[in-house]
Write a structure and sequence with these properties.
This protein is an alpha+beta fold. It has 2 domains: about 100 residues, Alpha-Beta Plaits (2-Layer Sandwich), CATH 3.30.70.580; about 150 residues, Pseudouridine synthase I, catalytic domain, C-terminal subdomain (Alpha-Beta Plaits), CATH 3.30.70. Helix content is about 20%, strand content about 25%. The chain starts with 15 loop residues before the first strand and ends with a strand.
Length: about 270
């Protein structure tokens, strides 16, 4: 996922501005962003196809956070412009009728002319789910990361503390374009164990580790790379202080592999100052 700071050419443009909050099952898509190949299905390509039917016109959407293939969204936000008027209720019902079951529209609203799903947002929060000390459950393998080792959550918390505040997060960015800013403000990282028990046809999951990460914006794969690093600390393969060391190196070659995408969810996009 990536929330870059490139120049915004949409602010103050023409047309009615629509804001749509939605959730989706990322395992069904090759990420959010549209791809060059037409045979690759993305969340953006499906949304724009259905919006074109509703507005009888080509619609280009902007998104709060471009999630990678396999990453889910509990609350993603898009915006777009059109000269055609559709009420919030009509657009809400039409989208939910046309979209596949893997995408659900949560809310629709008209916004002011300077609203932009990405550039108006002041923060994003992601959630990562881990089942440690466990074998893989094939029914949840694209929803939760299964780790066979027991993770030391206190060590992970100590390691995560080094990431709080404004830092150069280049170590935790993948394929960042040359010259792009890599300073981000990490507001909070929390880890907790939470019960997910209950009998069912797919087995009892028991206790999960829930990791929440909130920042003003993220580099590509930044959340997954942080999660992969903290899992390494939780396995006692690295001491917590190693997180500070690789952060200061500002080079992704020193970062462990990114955690798998299936356990990651875009949880919330903050527009509290809009």
């Amino acid at each position: 996922m990536s929330d870059s700071f490139e120049e915004n050419t949409d602010l103050g443009g023409n047309g009615i501005v629509y804001k749509v909050a939605l959730s989706y099952d990322g395992s069904r898509f090759a990420g959010f962003q549209d791809q060059v190949r037409e045979d690759i299905v993305t969340v953006q390509s499906v949304l724009e196809e259905k919006l074109a039917l509703i507005f009888n016109d080509r619609i280009s959407v902007r998104v709060a956070g471009r999630t990678d293939a396999g990453v889910h969204a509990l609350q993603q936000v898009i915006s777009f412009r059109s000269f055609i008027e559709r009420s919030d209720e009509v657009l809400f019902n039409a989208l939910n009728a046309l979209l596949p079951d893997s995408i659900a529209v949560l809310q629709v609203s008209h916004e002011g002319p300077r609203f932009h799903a990405r550039f108006t947002a002041i923060g994003r929060e992601y959630e990562y789910l881990i089942k440690d000390n466990s074998r893989v459950n094939p029914f949840f393998s694209d929803r939760i990361l299964f780790v066979k080792e027991k993770l030391d959550i206190e060590a992970m918390r100590r390691g995560s503390a080094f990431l709080i505040g404004s830092h150069d997060f280049a170590t935790f960015g993948s394929q960042v374009p040359k010259g792009s800013p890599t300073i981000r403000r990490m507001e909070a990282i929390s880890l907790r164990r939470e019960s997910c028990s209950g009998p069912g046809p797919f087995g009892d999951l028991g206790e999960l580790i829930v990791m929440n990460i909130k920042a003003n914006a993220f580099l590509r794969r930044m959340v997954r790379m942080i999660c992969g690093t903290l899992i390494k600390v939780g396995k006692h393969e690295w001491p917590p202080e190693k997180v500070k060391e690789i952060l200061e190196l500002a080079n992704p070659r020193y970062c462990p592999p990114a955690a798998e995408p299936g356990g990651l969810y875009l949880k919330f996009v903050d527009y509290s100052q809009d």
